[in-house]
Amino acid sequence: MKNFVSVFVPVVFRLFSMLPLSVAHGIGTLLGRCLWLANGRVRKVTEKNLEICFPDMNRLDRQTLAKKSLCQLGMMTIELGASWYWPVEKLLLMITEVEGLEYLQQAHEEGKGVVVLAPHLGNWEILGLYLASKYKITGLYQPPVYASMDKMMYQARGRNGIQLVPTNTSGVKSLLKALRRGEVTMILPDQVPPKNSGEFAPFFNISTLTATLAQNLIARTRANVVVAGLLRSEKADGFRLVFGPVTEDIYADDMVIALAALNKGVEEIIMESPAQYQWEYKRFRRVPAGDVQPYK
């Protein structure tokens, strides 16, 4: 199986990279529709997450959003060929709109480090390349399940001068040093952490185990914080990059208050295009003691 993956997967994504973005998105949409019709785990988790986060939305609207989400998942999968293999300059030209750039610029001009919170929204692969085109950036890198894909992914994500560090104590120390030098780091803040690396805080009004990594970095370096998302345009011909602010509570000494502010910032950037968020992820699989696990 490992040999199959090491040979087959890079070839497939190389083939995907030959497609124009509009064609890749068309194929991705078809893939998403197939996922919907298959009615498997991906669809069921998506529908459950939307039910949890949007309880006041009527069922038909939630179903429509779920279908769109699966199509966006398909687009993201097929466009990985471009994200990993296209020249950086070509990818950056695909960013046709940038909104809220002043939040990032102001945060950096204060001479502090900057933590960019980038949830699993749109195309975060290209977002990292954009940030590296403007600033010196350090990011965490976790090797994939199949070690045979490690070289491909490491080279793809390390383009444009991004310094990748491992997801361990050594990597965290590197992030601290970078922020203290006034540099930029990008954190994906919406993954389910180990129990000893997170605390429960509201996310879409649900008590959600939230990673404390970003908060610990902010507290120890007094770094500034912005949120960001790279969104696909409706015409499938490029991307819209959005930066947003966070509230002052994110700098609070009380961890739960700070994490609630972090999650609120993530929520607000998600609402720029809810269909492009990865609702297929079991974000609520760890629950407070006594609560019922929502996924069957």
* Helix fraction bin: 40-55%
Q: Give the tally of β-strands.
A: 9
Order of helices and strands: HHHHHEHEHEHEHEEEHEEH
Mean pLDDT: 92
**Strand percent estimate:** 15-25%
Radius of gyration: 19 Å
Distance between the termini: 28 Å
Q: What is the spatial order of strands in the main beta sheet? A: 1-9-8-2-5-3-4
Query: Regarding quaternary structure, how should these chains be classified?
Result: single chain
What labels would you give this structure?
alpha/beta, 296 residues, seven-stranded mixed β-sheet
Précis, in short:
The chain has 296 residues and is of the alpha/beta class. It is built from eleven helices and nine strands.
Protein architecture, described:
The model has no long low-confidence stretch (mean pLDDT 92). The chain is globular, with a radius of gyration of 19 Å. α8 links the parallel β3 and β4. It is an alpha/beta fold. It has a domain of 188 residues. It has 11 helices and 9 strands.
Produce the secondary structure layout:
Elements: H1 2-17, H2 21-38, H3 41-53, H4 59-85, H5 88-93, E1 95-99, H6 101-109, E2 114-117, H7 124-134, E3 137-141, H8 150-157, E4 163-166, H9 169-180, E5 184-187, E6 198-203, E7 206-211, H10 213-221, E8 224-232, E9 239-244, H11 255-270
Parallel strand pairs: 1-9, 2-5, 2-8, 3-4, 3-5
Antiparallel strand pairs: 6-7, 8-9
